[in-house]
Amino acid sequence: MNITTEQGRFAPRFRFVSLLTVVSIYLLILVGGIVRSTGSGMGCPDWPKCFGQWIPPTEARELPANYKEIYTARRVAKNQKLARTLQRLGFTQVAGDIFAHPTQYIETDFNAVKTWIEYLNRVLGALIGVFVFLTVVFALPYLRRDAPVFWMALASFVLTGVQGYLGSLVVSTNLLPVMVTIHMGLALLIVALLLYAVHRAGVLGQDDAQERTATSERAEVLAATGGLRAVLWLALLATFGQIVLGTQVREVVDMVAAAANYAGRETWVSQLGATFTLHRAASVAVLVLVGYTSYELARAGGSGARRLAGAAVALVLAEAAAGIGLAYWELPALLQPVHLTLATVLFGVQFLMILGLRRPVVVPLQAIPKQVNA
Fold this sequence. Notes:
With about 375 residues, this protein is mostly helical. It is built from 12 helices and no strands. It folds into 2 domains: about 1-205, no CATH class; about 215-360, Four Helix Bundle (Hemerythrin (Met), subunit A). Helix content is about 75%, strand content about 0%. The longest helix has about 35 residues, at about 5-35. It is globular and about 65 Å long.
C-alpha cells in the first residue's frame, strides 16, 4: 500500500466529517437557544428518556395522573445526591446553589410542543455524538503521521460524553445558572479542539509545494504582526467572557419574566440590573478588539487571513445588531438564539485566526517510507 496515496484518501474524509461535526454543534447551539427562548428546557423532565419513554408522548392522558409529583421527586433526589457528592469534593458553593435552587421543586405541566422541541434538541445531540465518533475513526491514520490530530479528535469525543452528562444535570437542576454556563463553555472547548484538528490536518494534507508556500506565508505573517497573537487571544477571551455573561443575563431575564408572570415584556430590560449593564458595556470592548485584530491580520496576512478577518467583522457587527434589537425591541424570542449562535460562531472564527498565525510542526513526506507491505 502506498502511504502517500492512502493519506490523500483519508485526509479529505477526516476534514469533511470534522467540519460536519463543527457545523452540527453550532446547529445544536442554535436549537438550544430556541429551547431556552421558548421555555422548553423542562419539556422533558427526565434524561435520557422523555417522560420515561424513548419516543415522548403527544398528550397528557398518556402519562400517569401524578406524573408531576413523580418526576419532581426523581429530579430532587438526583440533585441532592449530586450536591452531596460535590460537597464532599470541596465544591461547597456549587453544592449550596444546588441545595438552595428553588425552581428544582417546581412541578412542570406537560406541554406537547415544548416536549417535542426539547426532544428534537436531544436527538440532534445524539447525532453529534455519532459524528464525533466518526471523526475519531477517520483520525486513526493520523496516529502515524501526526498524533495530535488523533488525540484532539479523541478528546472531543470524550468531552462530548461529559457534555451529555452535563445536559442531564442542566435538566435535573432546572437550568441552574452554573450548570448552563459550564455546559456552554464545554461546547466551545469541543469546537476549539475540532477546529484545531481540522486546521492541522489541512496543513498536513498539502503537497510539498503548497506546504512551502503556506509556511512562507505564515512566516511573513508572523514577522509582520509581532504582538498580534497576544491581542488575538485577548479578543478571544473577551468573546468567551461575553458568552458567559450572556448566559447570566439570560438567567436574569428568566427570573424577571417569571416574576411578572410573563406579562409586561416592555419593562423587562429595565429590570435586568448590573449584569446586563456590564454585558452591554463589554460588547463595545469586544467590537473594538475584533475590529482592530481583523484589520491588522488582513493587512499583514494572505488571502485566507483576509477572509477570516472579513468574517469576524461581519459576525461581530451582526452580533451587535442582534444585541441592539434585543435591548430596544423588548427581547424578541426570535433574536435570542440568533444572538447566542452568532457569538459562538465568532468565537470559532477568532480561534481560526489564531491558528493561522501558528506554524505547526510538519513531518516531511520524505521522512515516511513510500512503500510498506500491506
